């Protein structure tokens, strides 16, 4: 009888070990369960970058001038929401190929100086990783842009499509929303200012061109961008069209200064890191459940074998 109890105790301990192992496997590790901190300021959200294939050599005169240009652009955000600079500069300085750098920044009209400075600083901080050593960079944030090149682009019209995105379809049944969107997009085309904001109910639209363009060039660029926005995104829940020298966009709800473009353009920030973390957690849970099921199957088979053996031993005694 004591032998039977001893074997039963060993069996219980085996069951306990199996369940303990299953619980350990079910608990996510710190690398997948920890939410990594992310930069959440929506005014500083990265939209796109265009980098030249041609690259300068580290330590070159161009790199020295570029560093001076970028720091000067950040410093000038205190007093301006737009500025363009040429480095080296001066009345007696002549441009040199692969040495002179031309650059500008511009912030949305509804950004205060602190937010503008933050956005431009964030854009410049991204340049090194996004476009390392590129001679030409165009980096667009949600509410500011930074651009530089080894050739002057000031005052040059350029309507190249850089990015176009439309949100999810609204549906034909929402006629009121369609009317508001149509009104906002249409009103963006009127006016002579380089920065335009139009609102109708919960629909908000913005259009802007870089201030190096003349009024006629600006209107020409915005007409193109707004026309593309109307033809491609009128039936969507939001959209934007970025050309090289201007953009037009609209969204539902909230201020553009606090919005992040996503599939619905509703103002919620899409965070890829959060999605990656959630996917990781889900995978860990699924793997844990599968492992637990396998362990239970093995455990049941093991218990069946043990019980049969115990019964055989008891009968033999």
TrEMBL record:
Gene Ontology biological-process annotations: defense response to bacterium
From the record, give the transmembrane residue ranges.
283-304
Q: Which InterPro entries match?
A: Cell2Cell_Antifungal (IPR051378), GNK2 (IPR002902), GNK2_sf (IPR038408)
Among its keywords, does the record have Transmembrane helix? yes
Topology relative to the lipid bilayer, per the entry, is: Single-pass type I membrane protein
- Asked if the Swiss-Prot or TrEMBL record annotates the protein with the keyword ATP-binding, the reply is no
Tell me the protein's name.
Gnk2-homologous domain-containing protein
Which species is this UniProt entry from? Brassica oleracea var. oleracea
